Amino acid sequence: SAVISQKPSRDICQRGTSLTIQCQVDSQVTMMFWYRQQPGQSLTLIATANQGSEATYESGFVIDKFPISRPNLTFSTLTVSNMSPEDSSIYLCSVVVLAGETQYFGPGTRLLVL
Amino acid sequence: GDSVTQMEGPVTLSEEAFLTINCTYTATGYPSLFWYVQYPGEGLQLLLKATKADDKGSNKGFEATYRKETTSFHLEKGSVQVSDSAVYFCALSDLGATDSWGKLQFGAGTQVVVTP
After folding, report:
1. Segment B63-77, tens digit of pLDDT
2. Residue A50 DSSP symbol
């Protein structure tokens, strides 16, 4: 398994601003993902964070709105840009540990946009 | 494409009752199947998994069997406790699909409420 931390754990932001969420893992992992969970909904994959290259985005998500970095095997950031109230969600990172297939999730970042 | 369908909630039970949450899937490759649990105010925790047909995953009194013939992975627990109140997500990962390797496809989630 893996121990995953996210910062911040929650935040309240004003519309039009941006927030960067950090995801740190205690061991090297093969894959890192970012998900969004809107209130009362299931999880939707935003993108796969690729080490040293541009993230791979799912349909409906774009780099200008959700820029992602992954400078090494244990760290990634997701930025939610130019926020609107519709961006109020829980944002979760997940990882696949080396040689495994199970995804482990961070505790999530609860974002409220006013 | 791959998809997961699970029964709608909320499911309300009394303590010590039997719990079943139905989950069926469609996949083009050879999926692994998972149940995740989300307790109030928390992130997702892996509850159990099964990687091939007829495998049974189990943890904390919960069980689910990978049934390829019925494309199902129903979650069961014989005697629930108040502490089992949570949202349960069924998910699949299709390692045989080259364009979605490692990605999880989630069901809608089923809220379970256990009353004393």
Report:
1. 999 999 999 999 999
2. P
Q: Least CB-CB distance to B102: which of A41, A43, A96? A: A96
* B49 contact residues in A (CB cutoff 8 A): 102
In Å, how far are A52, A74, B23, B78, B82 from B64, measured between CA atoms? 38, 32, 10, 12, 20
**Amino acid at site A24:** Q
Chain A: give the shortest CA distance to residue B17, in Å: 25
Give the pLDDT confidence score for residue A21 in this predicted structure.
98
> What is the model's pLDDT at position B112?
97
Cα separation of A74 and B97, whole Å?
A: 25
Q: What residues are paired with B78 via a beta bridge?
A: none
Distance, in Å, from the CA atom of B52 to the CA atom of B30, rounded to the nearest integer, reads 8
Strand bridging mode A10-13 / A19-25: unpaired
Whether the CB of B116 is below 8 Å from some CB of chain A: the reply is: no
Identify the sign of the CA torsion B31, B33, B38, B44.
negative
Positive or negative CA dihedral for A51, A53, A57, A62?
positive
